[in-house]
Design goal:
This protein is of the alpha/beta class. Helix 10 (285-293) runs parallel beside helix 11. Strands 12-11-10-7-6-5-4-13 form an eight-stranded parallel beta sheet. Strands 1-2-3 form a three-stranded antiparallel beta sheet, with no helix packed on it. The relative contact order is 0.15. Helix content is 39%, strand content 16%. A hairpin with a 5-residue loop joins strand 2 (42-44) and strand 3 (50-51).
């Protein structure tokens, strides 16, 4: 679709659904985002306008390399990718930082990595993009220090807290930092004593990580609550303002029932908003929407991962529209190739074609999704600026 046609569509959508008085648009000069006074949604600190997240996970490039593996040698690529992400209509980028790249030892952070992170915040400010900084990643086993896996649970948590202390100290002054996501999809032990800190492998990466190998008589809520409090305290030592969350697997959806664990009353108090990852299945969008509603606990709610992995693109559109009444943002994926680059790629795969089509749809929906949040709530008191 040509750029001028997209512009016409955007104008028509904006004419049909008034957004200018209630939804803050991304801009080159960023103001901090915070939780509203009533605790239910996001607002810009300076204007009080509602802020709706529309972003991408920028976790790896087209070759599968993680950001902190190539940002030293290929910084120009990062700059170009951020401009491309902005052109998609996004206002937020979720980046994933590997613990092994940021901790030189159990006690010492990696100064070079922290400086590169500071440079990333400056790039975000320049391009008008907010950062969802997700930490403690162990996605590539080759980057996990041998000393790290040999630590006890208590000492492992101390290293994780030092990671967050260093990151928060580095990022605390940047208005571009939307939030700190404590860990991607942490999991907890059951009755069995585990031997591996990592969960299953997916595409050569380990996205799931255990907080403990042995419950040792504790409940899962007790373990999760203690860990969240320790990580949040490390952040708050240096950064009192930036929001904190943790992106979770929606076990309520996976198992078809139950209650959220990390967003239970026992665990969620230090977390400013709810982050959950959803990949609706084809023809089962209603089931996904029912499960998502379980995570509407009175705090802002963000679908931090979504993609037509198990469904068609039309299912994802249905999921977005169906969740607008209680969701404050959605984050998909961008892997360093535009839709046109994927379409022109030699020997393009079916996955490339799906991704290209989704990126086009993502751009088309960028204004509609944000407008829909306001549209379905415009008769309530939380629709516009705070007073």
């Amino acid at each position: 679709m040509k750029a001028d046609v997209r512009t016409v569509i955007a104008i028509l959508l904006l004419a049909a659904i008034p957004v200018s008085d209630g939804v803050a648009e991304p801009r080159a000069t960023l103001g901090r985002i915070r939780v509203s006074q009533d605790g239910t949604h996001f607002v810009e600190s300076d204007s009080g306008k509602r802020f709706v997240v529309w972003g991408v996970n920028y976790d790896h490039d087209d070759e599968g390399r993680l950001l902190d593996e190539y940002w030293f040698d290929n910084w120009a690529t990062v700059e170009e990718d951020f401009r491309e992400i902005r052109a998609l209509g996004a206002n937020c980028v979720r980046v994933h930082l590997q613990l092994g790249m940021f901790m030189s030892s159990a006690a010492e952070p990696n100064a070079a990595a922290l400086e590169q992170l500071a440079q990333l915040t400056r790039l975000a400010e320049q391009t008008g993009l907010y950062l969802d900084i997700t930490g403690l990643a162990c996605y590539h086993r080759k980057n996990i220090p041998p000393w790290y896996d040999g630590l006890s649970e208590q000492d492992r948590w101390k290293v994780q807290a030092r990671f967050w202390s260093a990151v928060a100290k580095t990022c605390r002054t940047s208005p571009a930092v939307f939030c700190y996501d404590l860990m991607n999809e942490p999991i907890l032990p059951g009755t069995k004593v585990e031997t591996d800190w990592l969960g299953g492998e997916l595409g050569g990466k380990f996205f799931v990580q255990r907080l403990s190998l042995d419950a040792s008589g504790r409940t899962r809520q007790q373990i999760a609550a203690a860990w969240v409090r320790q990580m949040a305290a490390a952040i708050r030592e240096h950064d009192k303002d930036t929001m904190i969350t943790v992106g979770v697997i929606p076990w309520v959806f996976v198992f078809g029932g139950g209650e959220p664990l990390f967003y239970s009353p026992e665990v969620s108090e230090p977390l400013d908003f709810t982050s959950v990852h959803f990949y609706p299945e084809k023809g089962k969008v209603d089931r996904a929407l029912t499960a998502l509603k379980k995570y509407d606990i009175g705090k802002p709610l963000v679908v931090e991962e979504m993609f037509p992995l198990k469904s068609g693109i039309d299912d994802i559109e249905q999921f977005i529209r169906g969740s607008a009444s209680h969701t404050d943002g959605w984050i998909s994926f961008y892997w360093g190739k535009t839709a046109s680059e994927l379409a022109e790629k030699k020997n393009a795969s079916i996955g490339d074609a799906i991704t290209a089509k989704w990126l086009e749809t993502f751009t088309r929906l960028s204004e509609e999704a944000k407008a829909s949040v306001l549209s379905v709530r415009q008769n309530s008191s939380d629709g516009g600026p705070e007073h």
